[in-house]
Design a protein that fits this description.
Distance between the termini: 40 Å
Radius of gyration: 16 Å
CATH superfamily: Alpha/Beta hydrolase fold, catalytic domain
Strand order of the largest sheet: 1-2-4-3-5-6-7-8
Shape: globular
Helix content: 25-40%
Protein name: Dienelactone hydrolase family protein
Structural class: alpha/beta
Pfam families: DLH
Order of helices and strands: EEEHEHEHEEHEH
CATH class: Alpha Beta
GO molecular function: hydrolase activity
CATH architecture: 3-Layer(aba) Sandwich
Strand content: 25-35%
Keywords: Hydrolase
Length: about 240
């Protein structure tokens, strides 16, 4: 399926927030994916765009949100990570509103994919926003204090490396326990030999799991072969969370 890419923007906190939109050439309302990068930002990291292209090729309109524009950063700084979490969360909420209002989107089929810091933001927002019908967490932390006791989470897919030195795998199990307590449909896959980022066959398996999960909860689009979805860890990533 042919995929086109365009740069658009919306306003959040009186700031212009860029969004890279990847959409298949299919003239009908389609499911939407909001995609949130990690702390390394979008800078020169082309593999986030490759991942968005791979998902869009399966029939989704993917919105890769530059949420760091809200705080004027190219990458998240550890020293301001926690104080900026709230404005980033507000920007993700504004992104969801902007996406849901687009005419070519099926507003009843909106999913969110978060990577690392983006996964924490996604979990926080999804716990309070019923528009999100499916959530994917790639090696993300459980944001302490950001999820209320009466939160209603959507079906969730958790993917994590057992050897992750940045966001310990205990976070994945804590998210799983939360979902169990709330009786939320979920899947979890822990890769025994992987760290903060997936490669090779593990990466291919993660792609397959993501597309199968999205197909189950958003759309019966056929699964396409997987190109690399998300980048491996970098030195930038290692400042993200301890």
């Amino acid at each position: 399926m042919t995929v086109t890419k365009a740069r658009r923007s919306f306003s959040s906190g009186e700031k212009d927030i860029a969004v890279d939109v990847f959409e298949p050439t299919r003239n009908m309302p389609r499911p939407a994916i909001v995609m949130l990068h990690g702390a390394d930002g979008l800078g020169s990291n082309a593999r986030y765009h490759e991942g968005a292209m791979a998902i869009a090729a399966s029939g989704y309109q993917v919105h890769l949100v530059h949420y760091l524009d809200r705080t004027g950063e190219r990458r998240a700084s550890f020293s301001t990570l926690f104080q900026n979490f709230t404005p980033w969360t507000e920007t993700v909420q504004d992104a969801l509103a902007w996406v849901s209002e687009r005419a070519e989107i099926d507003p009843g089929k909106v999913g969110l994919i978060g990577i690392s810091l983006g996964a924490a933001l996604g979990l926080s927002v999804a716990s309070a926003d019923p528009r999100i019908k499916a959530l994917v967490s790639f090696f993300g932390p459980l944001p302490q204090g950001a999820i209320s006791h009466d939160a209603h989470l959507p079906p969730t897919l958790i993917l994590h490396g057992a050897m992750d030195p940045i966001v310990p795998v205990a976070n994945a199990y804590a998210i799983e326990a939360l979902l169990r307590r709330k009786d939320v449909p979920h899947e979890i896959q822990i890769y025994a030999r992987e760290g903060h980022g997936f490669r090779g066959r593990t990466q291919q398996d993660a792609v397959r799991r993501v597309l199968t999960f999205l197909r189950q909860y958003l759309d019966p689009a056929p699964i396409t072969s997987g190109s690399p979805l998300f980048p491996p860890a970098t030195d930038i990533d290692k400042t993200e969370l301890s």
